[in-house]
Every structure is written in structure tokens, then in C-alpha cells.
Amino acid sequence: MAPAIEFDNVSKKFRRGESHDSLRDLIPAIARGLFRRQPADSLDKEEFWALRNVSFNVERGEALGIVGPNGAGKSTTLKLLTRILKPTTGRCAVRGRVGALIEVAAGFHPDLTGRENVFLQGAIMGMKRAEIAGRFDEIIDFAGVGAFVDTPTKRYSSGMNARLGFSIAAHLRPDVLIIDEVLSVGDMAFQQRCFDRMLDFKQRGIAIVLVSHNLQAVATLCENAIFLANSVKAEGPTADVLDTYVRTTQKLEAPTGGRIVEITSAEFIAGGTPIGAYQEVDSGSQLDLRVSVTSLEPIDDVTFGFLVYRSSDQLLVYNGHIQSRDLGPPDRFMGDFVLDLTFRAHLVRGHYYITLHVLHNPTQDYLVPRRQVATISVHENRSRAGVADVDLKASMIPVADPVESRDVRSAAQPV
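RESULT FIELD:
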């Protein structure tokens, strides 16, 4: 059976500053196109490649994550998948009914009400009116816009538009679901409902393409991912691609004390056995990180900096340090040695990366600049947002009926 989505060696180019807002501008542009036959795979000085030779397939029941910096061609890819754009070269095929949410209120008519836009979007997807009406109440309830269903969508907030757009795409039984970062405008509870629904879609055999800067969302939903920067920089299992993406996009400091010290490797250890630089863990788990270091000259009085960042927004969630004098003998380091670090992942669910640096205290020179050494994906089901896992617990104690308590106290009082 053919894949639900085929993206075969696709390239797309655009022209800088091209705008035809009058017939006077349009006619010369058409004439230039007719008389200057340029090969499709070449560029003139005003053109640029938004995508270049990009290929991927998505099978039924599979979710593919697409990550990359701004301007990497992610939105162009989604517009090609939804046939808003045509590829310059290559072939793009999507099989079955497509549910897409690639912009807030994309396809909504602002002067139509929420009710009218539901029926409009269903008609665009090729559904009959009776079929849309049969799912209308469920669509509105999921979006949480029941009180405003007969209000024009131009009066909706961006969050209301996003909720209604996703609900329409999710409830009209697509064969392929294409979702952009737009879901980030919803609140945490709605985002969780969206991802629960997408996990259900996967089990029902629906193909999903998710573009997001929320790396935890990609790690949770997608088995495979691609790192896109106008061309494919990495592809394969999600964990490997996210690790490559985070490493590539970091802005690290240059060493100020020369390359005297180098971190040669880092790996998590479980039961004395290396388990690689990427690890999925439960919140609160103890982690052992082994770092191999080489010193080309004798050094002493250094600080090993240990920092943890949240990948989705580069938030610094922990900044700790260890002094070399606290590690015991030898007092001076030279040659190859191993630094063993043990810590607990008291973090809420999310994707995080760990960096190390080595600071020479007397001179305040960075012998090793801030360098990513590991990534972790933390799993837990209690929190909605935040960073720290506060190990929330609860208990409930039955209380005696107030009426009975009063009767007992009254009977016990002396007369």
C-alpha cells in the first residue's frame, strides 16, 4: 500500500519582492516569463530556494515531526502538502481527505459566524451537509465556543479561532492531519486534549505531520522527525533528530583560555552500563552522567559548571557548579580523567538538554566553553505547566457528619 504522504525530491523557489498589484505590473511580468525560458532547477539573481531537494514519506498511522529554525521552509512544506502551493520541481502526493490547520483561522471567512464557518470548512473538505450537521455539536463542545457559535469569527480571539480550527480539522474524519505551530496559542488544557486526540488518530491509522518548536510535543507524538533548514539536515528516529537539532542551533561561547581542556564524550550510565547520550526518564529519576575529559596541561582550581535548559524555549532551569577542590585528590588535573555526575530529574514533563563548562577560577577564563553533553525527555502525567516537579501528593480524611457531631457534644455537656 502506498504511503499516505509522499514528498519526493521537492524544491520550491520564490522571487524576492515580487508583487503585482496592478495590470501595469502584471503584463510585463507575464511577458518576461513567456520570452525568458529558464530551467526550473536554476535561479536568477532575484530568486531563492525556500526548499531544496526535500524527501520524506509518512505511512498511515505514523506521525512525522518537522523541526527547524524560523525561515527553514517548514510553512512552505505544509502549504505544498495542502496544495496551496505547487512545487517547482519534484512530486508531492497526499492520499485521502486532508484536515489541516496551518494558520490561525486559515480558510475562515471573518464575516461568517462560527456555525457558518464549520459548514464552510466541511464543504471545502468534500463533506455533505448532513454529515457535518451530525458532528456539529461535538465540534463546538471540543472547541469550547458554544456561547459564541453565532458570532462572526472576526470577533473571536486568536485562541478561539485556533480551537475552532483544530476542532473542525479533527472531527471531520481526515485521512491525513497536518498541524502547524498555531496550537501554541491554546491554553495548556486544550493543548493536552489536542495531543490526546492526535494519539487516538494514530491508533486509527491516520497519518499526521506536526510542525512545532515544542520539542516535547514532537518527542511525545512522533516516531520519526526531520530537521529542516531549507534542505533536510537530519532525519530518522525523533530522539536522534532532536538531539542533532538542539546541538546545531545552540549559540555557545568561544573558549577564552585556549584549548587546554576538552570534553571528549558524555554518556548516561545505568547499572554500570552506558545507555547513550539521549535518555527518556520518569520525573524524579536518578541519573548518572559520565563525562570524559582531557587536559593538555596541569590545571587546578577550576569550576565545572552544570546547566539544564528547557529545549522548547531555552529557559535555564538549573545552574549549578562543582569546585575541583571538592572532588578530592589529585589537586591538579592532567591527561585523561572521568567526571561522574549524579542528579535527580525533579522536572515536569518536557524535553531538556544539559551543558557543561570548565572555568579557571584564578583567571576567570573558560577552558571549556558551554557545551551540550546530553538531552533528556521527562515523562509524568500530573502537571499542566511549569518546570519543577514538587512531588505533589494528596490525601482525603472523612469528617463526621456535622449534625451528629453537634448532637454528641450537646449530650456530653453538663447540666
